[in-house]
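WARN retry 2 of 3 for item q-0093 after timeout on previous attempt; input resubmitted unchanged.
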Amino acid sequence: MRSETPAGPVNDSAPGDGLVKAGVVLFGIGAVATLVTVAPLFLGTEPFPTVAYTVSMLMGVGFAVAAAGVLRSIAAQRRQAREGAAAGVQAR
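OK item q-0093 returned
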């Protein structure tokens, strides 16, 4: 029956999902760091050291990592579709 729970764990992760998750985490860290480094401009306090601005760069790195994960997922789906189409042609 389809309504029954499978006996073993189901692997729903597609290629690239891990990269997207890691990219989201890096982007989030970078976004928080960007907000923290911009805060002294509005509060009139001393700016943070260069290291804080370097951590802000993780926002762009996270975006690039997530984009690489999406592209990897797209490539895997296209490969799977090509294999399915080739199998359909051979079955005739």
